[in-house]
Amino acid sequence: MIRLHDVVKRYGNQVEIGPISIDIPAGGVIGLVGPNGAGKSTVLTMIGRLLTPDAGRIEVGGSDVHATPSKQIAQTVSILRQENHFVTRLTVRQLVGFGRYPYSGGRLTQHDEDKISEAIDFLDLTALEQRFLDQLSGGQRQRAYVAMVLAQDTEYLLLDEPLNNLDAQHSVQMMEQLRRAADELGRTIVIVLHDINFAAAYSDYIIAMEDGRIAVHGTPDEIIRDDVLTRVFRTPVTVVDGPTGRFAAYHRAGSTTP
Amino acid sequence: MSADTTATAPPIRAERTRDLGPYASGSHRTRYRLVLAALIVASLGLTGLLLSWNNPFEIFSERWWRISTMRVTSIVVIATVTFCQSLATVAFQTVTNNRIITPSIMGFESLYILIQTTIVFFFGASGMVSLPPLARFLLQTAMMVLFAVLLYAWLLSGRFGNLHVMLLVGIILGSGMGAVSTLMQQMLDPNEFDVLVARLFGNVGNADTDFLWIVIPVCAATGGTIWILARRLDVLALGSDISTNLGMAHKRQVMVMLTLIAILMAMSTSLVGPMTFLGFLMATLAYSVTDTYDHRRILPVAWLLGYVILISAYFLLRHVFTLVDAVTIIVELIGGLVFLIVIFRKGRL
Predict the structure, then answer these.
(1) CB contact under 8 A, B247 and A130
(2) Which end of chain A, N or C, is more open, meaning fewer C-beta atoms within 10 Å of its C-beta?
(3) ipTM for the complex shown
(4) Which residues from chain A sit within 8 angstroms of residue B96, using beta carbons?
């Protein structure tokens, strides 16, 4: 369970995120959606203790993420942000190996090596594991980062827009793999998503944010509806039944809504 | 890839071959070992050459040692300075997550000179003399470390998260502190100025070796600490977000590292004065020949590279061209050129 209690973050005098209080149930894929600037990434990075809230309390799996030693939290929750730049040249396997740092302190045991191999195989990176990250395409690199947090073996995984800059094929592939991680490995995965339809297709639970607050949350059936989406995204949205489930149409809004 | 690994180490179990440790491939590992061996041989060879060059007596005889001992001090100074500069630069570049700016470029040394000048300016040469020399030395070093940590922790706190801004601020701070020092030096009484200069501007040929007996243990202890923390450096190199995710108290670790770096820079500056590009030269070459993330492999190579470079320059200029005062200048010239080449080749910072 991820529990936020009156969490507030202020940016300057104008912008305030929160106060937010919500209990996010453990298990499955949880989509965090909303328009730009709604505070999705801020909330995610606060849960992942990369950002300190100005007020409130955040608990993940029973421990306060901002009060418990960082090393202990690193074994419960892992977070991956959109942009990851560093100067060190790493191979895929070395990067994924860093995911074991909270356990190994840098000295990898055979057990760690097995976990690393598992994460690499899980994300179909086996053939690429000795390649340097700068020799990979954007989609492959993104997968390598996800493999790192997967190797971290945490119950909770927080991903900030993992589909950013990925084309349709790689986006679908990534979401399929995350879905499998939730189903087969039993992880709780919270994902910030830009595209409401990816959230509709792959989430078990959707949290929609608006203006720094949670507008609405519930199962996809409760959220993927004309009235809810139109209000949250402030754009006319029509939900249609597609071949694989419900689909939110919002392009060329003027011509689709009579 | 599998061909590489099987060539060097036949697999015992299928799983084992996938794990190559800090190397990208078996050939990287072989290359690293060759480089390290070559550097050790070169260091020993050059040290031996410097000791015995133009030494007319039979090798290892009593008279031979009498002449060699005089040169040992220079060798110790070179080893200490390259040790400090290489460790400080590599650690600094890791915690700031860049490979361009170095403690020297950011003005650590100018800060040291400013502190020394300020002490003489306000308390006079007599004020300096009234304290025992050792207490004075320790006081100055402590002040330098304190100010460096406060100043650079503030600078690196993310307020100036942009590398370009930080580089600019660092250079302005460095030259600003240099200018203030010069101003104060010009206002000093000539006698006091003399006292100050005597302790400010050492160089490799004429180092301030009074405190060598304390500089070496301090460097060894600081370097040892960096070595112990080297695995944390590996993680810090991945940036603030990833290292926090991996359970690192990022800010605190950066402060610890900055303190260690400031101590090393103070030690180096107290011996030979500012060396702007030596650290950059060592670190850049070390990254390119080691090609690994593992600091326990980068740090020794950086030190040995620096030692070989500085001792070759010293040997050539002292015994071949008899221009010993120019050692620092020549090394800085090479370092500055490499700095420019790296920036031009990358086309960015």
Answers:
(1) no
(2) C
(3) 0.90
(4) none
